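Appendix B, record 7
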Amino acid sequence: MTRTAIPTDGRSERLAFSPSSRAGMDKTAVRAMTLIEVLVAMTLLSTCVAGLMASATLATRNEQRCGQRVAAMYLAQEKLAEVEMIGAHVWMLGHPTEGTEGRNETTYDWTIDIKQQSMGELFTVQVKVEWGGPSGGEVSLETWLNDYQAKYAETETRSDQETTERR
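Structure tokens (predicted):
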């Protein structure tokens, strides 16, 4: 940076000024300003990095919870399909209504509640799956099943008994 100085004798001279040639206080002010800028930048950067790390931790935790919930839902669907395949009436007679199963390093406790409705062979089936730990939770599925096989088996048993009595 150059400045023009006007000497007292009337001649004009060009004098060169640089930041390092400034007087003592100006040197300190320039250096302190740079140090303050660096400190502010580091503070902002560290705040941003801390925020990003918190976001990454939260995302990982949510992904784990979501995976556990999906696994619990699959387990509940499997148990409901088993009851539907075997028949609610038969399940009530000889299959367990609760149990434990481990998946993806998590233990899931399941319970099956089957209630017969007042009309026909209609059953209300509820499957509940729970898991513990810091991110524990519960899922529940409920449906109504018409147990045609139980009705058919009951009709066959009656006709077999009637046939045996006639002989």
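Remarks on this record: The CA atoms of residues 21 and 115 lie 94 Å apart. The mean pLDDT is 79.
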